[in-house]
Specification:
CATH architecture: 3-Layer(aba) Sandwich
Helix content: 25-40%
Strand order of the largest sheet: 2-1-3-4-5-8
CATH class: Alpha Beta
Distance between the termini: 51 Å
CATH topology: Rossmann fold
Number of helices: 11
Shape: globular
Number of domains: 1
Largest sheet: 6 strands, mixed
Order of helices and strands: HEHEHHHEHHEHHEHEEHE
CATH superfamily: SGNH hydrolase
Radius of gyration: 19 Å
Length: 358
């Protein structure tokens, strides 16, 4: 079962245009399956069914948060950085599905490297960005000016760093020791980008993984005290909250040190909890709060079956993904991403909101 769990995670992890409110030269994105727009393309339909009509490498039925941000800023949807024959003058996406924050060596030393599917840490993604920069501008000063007027979205990072040991059966006590190292790597990555001229930076926190239908299926218990009042697993949400609290603290320190920048913490956790707590208030159905849209064909409490994962034989897809929060048990639907993006752009899920000028 462990191999099936790891494989599942690794190969799968109102529209508006307000571009007049804020203007950017370009947008550059780093991250994992919450941001990947095509550097890794594995799953077929029904991925991409609701907007693109075909799989694009996005781990959802349609657009991701990063896509809605691009649309709102009047920028093109970000091409993956590995795309051939594309112009990257208006931005590029360096995110890889299954990417970790920490490098291969960290996991290898702990006997966890077999659980990694790509070698695309945050540091390696930034290295790819650094290799691309000279093609976007003609001098160091010109590059700094160009990048100072570009938007950088660094994450989400952390999910795969923790899921790798969790899925390998390691204790949460050990997983907690990874968190400060992950936060330090994110901190260092942001500083590295600032050194290249970045001034407008968005750093997302983690989703509440204890509310993922896959987690609820794999780690279900009979003890009601293990669950929150909305039916999520306490111990995994506590891990996420710990990561997010350390991340916010480090970003506040960076903001004080680099006062000429705007470093925003972008919240995935609270809006997702709100969607699950009051689904109908946000356009979701009561039945779509903790169940996957694409999965086990209605079987099980959460519509997750490792023998019939989304896009595999035996799986099924709901008739209306827009009323579901979760797409495949570990990623969100386009409808959920749209709402989160709106909150990052206009508030209250990012402070200051991306579209807010000085």
């Amino acid at each position: 079962m462990r191999l099936s769990i790891i494989f599942f995670f690794l190969v799968l992890f109102p529209c508006f245009n307000l571009s007049g409110s804020q203007s950017y030269n370009a947008m550059f994105s780093f991250g994992d399956s919450l941001s990947d727009t095509g550097n890794v393309v594995v799953a077929g339909l029904p991925y991409g069914m609701s907007f693109f009509g075909r799989p694009t490498g996005r781990c959802s039925n349609g657009r991701l948060v990063i896509d809605f941000i691009a649309e709102a800023l009047g920028l093109p949807l970000l091409p993956p950085s590995t795309a051939k024959g594309k112009s990257f003058l208006r931005g590029a996406n360096f995110a890889y599905t299954a990417a970790t924050t920490l490098g291969f060596r960290f996991f290898h030393r702990r006997g966890l490297s077999s659980g990694l599917w790509v070698n695309a840490s945050l540091s390696s993604q930034i290295r790819s960005f650094e290799q691309m920069v000279p093609s976007l501008c003609n001098s160091s000063q010109e590059c700094k000016e160009y990048l100072s007027k570009s938007l950088f979205v660094v994450g989400e990072f952390g999910g795969n760093d923790y899921n790798t040991p969790i899925f390998a059966g390691r204790s949460l006590k050990q997983v907690y020791t990874f968190v400060p190292k992950v936060i330090h790597a994110i901190h260092s990555g942001v500083e590295r980008l600032i050194g290249h001229g970045a001034t407008e930076i968005v750093v997302p926190g983690m989703l509440p993984i204890g509310c993922f239908p896959m987690y609820l299926t794999l780690y279900s218990t009979w003890n009601t005290n293990d669950y929150t009042d909305i039916g999520c697993l306490n111990k995994f949400n506590n891990l996420t909250s710990y990561h997010n609290s350390l991340l916010r603290r480090r970003l506040q320190g960076l903001q004080r040190r680099y006062s000429w920048t705007r470093i925003r913490y972008a919240d995935f956790f609270d809006p997702t909890i709100q969607f699950i707590t009051s689904p109908t208030q946000y356009g979701f159905s009561d039945g779509g709060a903790l169940k996957a849209c694409c999965g086990a064909g209605g079987r099980g409490d959460y519509n997750v079956n490792l023998e019939a994962k989304c896009a595999e034989p035996g799986s099924d897809v709901c008739s209306n993904p827009s009323v579901y929060v979760s797409w495949d048990g570990i990623h969100l639907t386009e409808a959920a991403y749209r709402l989160i993006a709106n909150g990052w752009l206009r508030g209250p899920y990012a402070k200051p909101p991306i579209l807010q000028q000085n």
